[in-house]
Fold this protein.
Amino acid sequence: MEELGVGLIGTGYMGKCHALAYRNVKAVFGDVPRIRLETLCDVPADRASAMADQFGFARSTADWRELVTDPKVDLVSVTTPNGLHRDMAIAALEAGKHVWCEKPMALTLDDAKAMLDAAERAHKKTQVGYNYIWNPAILHAEKLIADGAIGKPVHFRILYDEDFQADPEAPWTWRCLKKDAGLGVLGDMGCHAMSMVEVLMGQPEALIADMQTIYTTRPKPEGGSGEVENEDVASALFRFEGGAQGLLSTSRCAWGRKNRIEWEVHGTHGQMTFNQEQLNELKLFRSGEGAAQGFRTILSGPDHPPFGDFMPGVGHQLGFNDLKVIELRDLLRGIVGDRAPRMDFGTGYRIENLIHGIHRSATEGTWWSP
Ligand code: NAD
């Protein structure tokens, strides 16, 4: 396939990120089909037409059903709020399109399962927006662990903190409602943390969790206050196959933290650590190299694929939007090569199962197993 027509639904934070990835992917990686920007959908219609002009799409519509049945569209991006993902993704798959869907997959586990079933029925390719795992530093960490650079992983910790809900006066939004957002911090950020767990440690075999809603009401912009129906903070303790233990703590109310996905893997012969706020740096300590040396900083560069496809210089730094280009390349390779993209709806469903498992364990106060 030399060309692929795309349709983009939503033009907010993630819509722009997908649009940039579509524009850049062929220029960065030569080995993917050429992309035709066909149809863009947003509401209202004048926003859709203005954004189609800005992003370079041929047509615009305010009706997403028109987009998913457009014969010129082969691949549909779903970048709308969580509650719209299920219907849009299933309709696109049923119309014979491949789907690139933002995380979390859906509001409920049943909805995510319906999306997985639709993908399997349609035999189309899917990818969920777990951009952080595509960082060359993370792919290098995965390789170092597999090569035994720190020995056998025995313990894992991950913190994922932001402060967009830290202010008690921050206004009430759809993100506070179960029917529009589904889970709280678990659906927004915990699922990204679990995508890291998937790549670095594999699937936990059991977990026990607790949750906290720090601000149970928030001021509504029109006056009065609205209830916060989902969690601000979630913490979980994991057991992995082979005896390793892990810890997760994630908060949307952590003042000063902007995108702190900070993890450490403790091995029998060393330790590796990473923080997404310095996304081009991995820290490695190996026991045989002398305690006085401390942690070594591995700065991302062309030795860590696919960094070199973007630029030849070590230390010149990739950014958030570049990770989305790498994620898209994997989807396109899946479409052309007829293989499953790494974060397809099957993997996405496994991650949904884990975040809903954390929620269930915290609600019931008992251990939970996938
Ligand atoms: P946003 O509010 O910035 O954008 C949502 C867009 O959807 C807007 O352009 C809105 O007009 C449009 N929209 C709403 N209803 C629509 C409809 N019926 N038809 C067509 N368009 C419609 O939101 P966002 O921050 O981009 O979040 C969107 C999704 O992306 C969410 O699921 C969120 O969890 C996810 N997200 C992922 C990441 C990541 O790192 N992968 C980061 C942020 C958000």
Notes: The longest strand covers residues 153-161.
